[in-house]
Amino acid sequence: MTSGGPARKVFTIPAGLAFADVLAGHLLARAEHDPLKLAEMVVLLPNRRACRTLEQAFLRASGGRPLLLPRLKPIEPDEADEDVLTLLGEGDPDLPEPVPPTERLLILTRLVLGAGAARGGRAPSPDQAARLAAELGKLLDGAAIERVGFDRLGQLVPDELAAHWQVTLDFLKIVTEHWPALLGGRLDHQTRVNRVLDAQAAHWRANPPDYPVIAAGSTGSRPATLDLLATIAGLPQGMVVLPGLDKGLDEDSWAALDETHPQFMLARLLKVLGLTRKQVGELTANPDPRAARLALLSQALRPAATCEAWKDLPEFPAATLAGISRLDAPTPREEAGAIALMLRETLEQDGRTAALVTPDRDLARRVAAELERWGILIDDSAGRPLALTEPGAFLRLLAEMVADHFAPHAVLACLKHPLAAGPDFRHQVRRLDRLCLRGPRPAAGIAGLRLAVGGDASLVRWLEGLEASLAPFLAVMGRDQASLGELLAAHMEAAEALAGPEMLWRGEAGEALGRFAGQLAEAAAAVGTVFPSIAPASYPALFDQLLSGQVVRPRWGRHPRLSILGPMEARLQQADLMILAGLNEGTWPAIADADPWMSRPMRAKFGLPAPERRIGQAAHDFAQGFGAARVVLTRSVRVEGAPTVPSRWLMRLDAVAQAAGLSFDAESAGWLAWHEGLDRPPARAPVERPAPRPPVAARPRKLSVTEIETWMRDPYALYAKHVLGLRKLDPIDADPGAADYGSLVHKAIETFLKAHPSGPLPLDALARLEAIGTDIFAAALARPGLWAFWWPRFTGVAAWLVEHEQARRADIAATFSEVKGGIEIEAPGGPFLLHARADRIDRLKDGTLAVIDYKTGQPPSAKEVAAGYAPQLSLEAAIARFGGFDGVAPAPVGQMLFWRLKGGSPGGEEKKAGDDPASLADQALDGLAALVAAFDDPATPYEARPHPDRAPRFSDTNHLARLQEWASAGEDDE
């Protein structure tokens, strides 16, 4: 095509006009509203979504009357689109079937595994190999799209470049040598698309059709598409319609376009067509109502080489930015909430439409979730990740549970999933949770769970039934190696046994997951002879990787006037309200990531486009959306706590608009406040410190010496335990607990001292104590999480204890271990019993008593004991002085000692609780009597943390007391 005159076969629709509506109106007029003439036309559009958009535009243009539509075909259908097999049903060559994408991924994964093993060192895991294979697939697709051969790879790396590039080239023999050999005469999807497009172009050149052929909305991103567009432009009844060609950009800027500019791809297309912008006609005579706005955007996005022209900006009308508003939200939560409100507000006006356009999938999901508060289900063109759907998550959790040998968190995550069902299932899972999944981890496997539940026959039978349901999967996962096909088949069989096939595969998500599982099974069978067996432990991660990228798209039931679109899908669409969201650098536009296989010079030499081309395509999509009647530009100031940088397009717009004396509409400012107000109560009553006052009859009349300290420091904790009867559950799969460890140490020392109550210790005392510890720790050490933590500490304690005990024996007449006792105190509310279990009481040869408390943690200081806030030993001394301990005759207390049994080297240390035990015991008794009397008064509350500076550092009841809601800033809170 020459450049001598106007080219009436190439047109553009300005970004300020609704592309699909203008195109539909033009085609109806061209067909003279004759349905048969319209049906003869062939319209080629960029993708399947654009075809549906044009269908809806025809419906609007006809006023809802039935029409015989043109044949609408996507130029570049994706791998899931069967139209790739025959683009138009004519001129299609006899091409082999394409390689299914899942099969290709598995073959490439096998090649990556083989290449890793051949190069020596640590081979990648199967899931890592699958990720690398996916990147190799992108390289294959990119090379196929650009029509470059891998035979040129060897010329890319001169000797002077880095050695790792040489290693990379050696690795890429996968695609240069092995992959073509494994294709077996079949074609990659992108290669086949090229062949179909080339054949269609060749057929039309040789046999020009006698019906109109219109290619609309494409920018010619691939060479095969460029050739087809050039062919269509040369047909007698051919027409090419470009989206948003900027005919007002000055020639210097047009000549300086780089790959990040929104017009770069269109400029390349016009160059291939041999046209100038003046030769491109306007498809409609209607003026662009937003021409000034788009001219401002053109100025803002002009190439860097001509930005000096900003100092001579033309005058823009005051209403240039009318209809454009800006919202900078604090975080994505507020951004999504404000967007959802805007979409909801659109529905208050009959017939109005709105679309959220963003590449940020997390933001899109947040908006969809926010809309569900009003019962609105919105159409998200990108679909929902299959891995996040109910059946997808269940399959992943099931594989993780079995591979993790039924670890507590994995068990609960899987068995509490809604799809895990069966007779009495929920009840038994809750019982399993309480009986054996809390505290330190049970032994591995279902056998470990059975051992942990002990003699609970009902739960044992239920676990046996669970084991029978999962038996095939357990058998395969228990092998050293298994094929992917075997693992997948057993996985699906186990999932059906646990959930039931009618529940697992139901609904759109279940159907999509069933298709994926079928495709994966077929692919595994097809590559079974070349794909290696893998360690079953790596199967869950491999399954996750294979499942990633799979999406489920609803077929119906979504709102007809609201939608969420990706930028490319929104290119040809305009709603009454267009919300362009996620406008931060790194999101829109995305970062131009480095190629994992080639440096930029290597890509250029090889013939692949620079990564920045994607930025230019994103800029074009942004410009198309910017031309809508009403536009809201949104971004988040912080994401995941980190500050963000506004999109370069926003910053340029701000600079040019400010220079031109323009500003965005301020109407979006209220959306954030309205969103915040949605969940804000009309009035907020101040939360006061809990101070319950139960009747005296409900208050405890019996407490241990250790609980007295809690009573003084945090009465509310005592109220929760003794009045409400609450007990804390242990954490799931807890680290070995200090309390459990301390109990076992106490038991071992008690047993040892009862075996050797007096006199010198035997020469093998340490060995005897360790043997006692082995017996006592045996049940706990069956749990794998305990052996490495507890036993080394105990051996250190044992060594210190034997040495220290040997030195004390000369002064000891008798030793009493773990002895119980108590005294009764008269109080206004009736007798009050103080009881205790002393770790150790020694009767010394001088007639006095030594009261000893073992501490595996940090003991209280002598200052805390003297102040009365650590009264345990003082109260035990008072009980011992009055003969309150079984078998211990009354006697003065001469020593109050803490033995810190810390393990390590040295394994322990002795600390005095005070220098005057008698005085401390008297003070403790007097203080206790006053405390009991105070709480025998019905007006005395069980207040939460009455003295914050003396409150316990940790408490199991802080969340029940709602500490965070009333505690002052000066308090230490949980």
TrEMBL record:
What top-level branch of life does the organism fall under? Bacteria
Spell out the coiled coil positions from the record.
Answer: none
Q: Which InterPro entries match?
A: Ds_break_AddB (IPR014153), P-loop_NTPase (IPR027417), PDDEXK-like_dom_sf (IPR011604), PDDEXK_AddAB-type (IPR038726)
SUPFAM superfamilies with a match to the protein in the record: P-loop containing nucleoside triphosphate hydrolases
Ranges for domain PD-(D/E)XK endonuclease-like:
703-944
Show the Pfam families listed in the entry. PDDEXK_1 (PF12705)
- What is the recorded name of this protein? Double-strand break repair protein AddB
> What organism does this protein naturally occur in?
Magnetospirillum moscoviense
